[in-house]
Specification:
The complex is a heterodimer of chains A (113) and B (116). Chain A starts with a strand and ends with a strand. In chain A, the strands form 2 sheets. In chain A, strands 2, 4, 5, 9, 10 and 11 form a 6-stranded mixed beta sheet that branches. Chain A is mainly beta. The model of chain A has no long low-confidence stretch (mean pLDDT 94). In chain A, 0% of the residues lie in helices and 54% in strands. Chain B is built from no helices and 11 strands. Chain B is globular, with a radius of gyration of 14 Å. The model of chain B has no long low-confidence stretch (mean pLDDT 92). Classes of the chains: A mainly beta (113), B mainly beta (116). At the A-B interface, strand 4, strand 5, strand 9 and strand 10 of A face strand 4, strand 5, strand 9 and strand 10 of B.
């Protein structure tokens, strides 16, 4: 059974800092990995998707990397600002037709002004 | 296209009552997913449709839960005889995809269910 872990559960950084959020998964047989952010009481906003054949994806100040063999992904946020404060979740999908996602519990990020 | 929509956004019900939620996916997406999220946890998969066919159901989906997607468009999730343990955020997502290929999932705002 696939398990996704995100540690630490919470992180607080000063504004302007570059930071890395970690995600690990137990079964390397994944099809893709997706990073989301979720504001309190809201739905999920997709940030980046990395297919299993890819090593990284970039969108603006965000860069996500994937190392399938070690079961790890990182989300790099450059020049953080208070608007980045949110919960960040990673999720993986298995090979095959059903691309249901298995999620970690998320990392709650607070960027202090 | 305004994205995935869900109604209602909030539902408060008494234990034992039935509730129904609706999800309207992005119009060109043929895949639709339901997830459930409790406080402090990541979403957990409940069920999945490709067009109108329900292809997989999680063991989390007890016989009190039923989902439909008539004509492969919107979907409904019904919970019968609600219990306090059903209190959660119910999230719907959609994606495009061909057989064997998975694409990015887009989530709706969720329906927050509170069972008193």
């Amino acid at each position: 059974k696939q398990e996704v872990t995100q540690i630490p559960a919470a992180l607080s950084v000063p504004e302007g800092e570059n930071l890395v959020l970690n995600c690990s998964f137990t079964d390397s047989a994944i099809y893709n990995l997706q990073w989301f952010r979720q504001d309190p009481g809201k739905g999920l906003t997709s940030l980046l998707l990395i297919q299993s054949s890819q090593r990284e994806q970039t969108s603006g100040r965000l860069n996500a990397s994937l190392d399938k063999s070690s079961g790890r992904s990182t989300l790099y946020i450059a020049a953080s600002h208070p608007g980045d404060s949110s919960t960040y979740l990673c999720a993986v999908s298995p090979p095959g037709a059903n691309s249901k996602l298995t999620f970690g519990k998320g990392i709650t990020l607070s960027v202090r002004p | 296209d305004t994205g995935v929509s869900q109604n209602p956004r909030h539902k408060i019900t008494k234990r034992g009552q039935n509730v129904t939620f609706r999800c309207d996916p992005i119009s060109e997406h043929n895949r639709l997913y339901w997830y459930r999220q409790t406080l402090g946890q990541g979403p957990e998969f409940l069920t999945y449709f490709q067009n109108e066919a329900q292809l997989e159901k999680s063991r989390l989906l007890s016989d009190r839960f039923s989902a439909e997607r008539p004509k492969g468009s919107f979907s409904t999730l019904e919970i019968q005889r609600t219990e306090q343990g059903d209190s959660a955020m119910y999230l719907c997502a959609s994606s495009s995809g061909l057989a064997g290929i998975s694409y990015e999932q887009y989530f709706g705002p969720g329906t927050r269910l509170t069972v008193t």
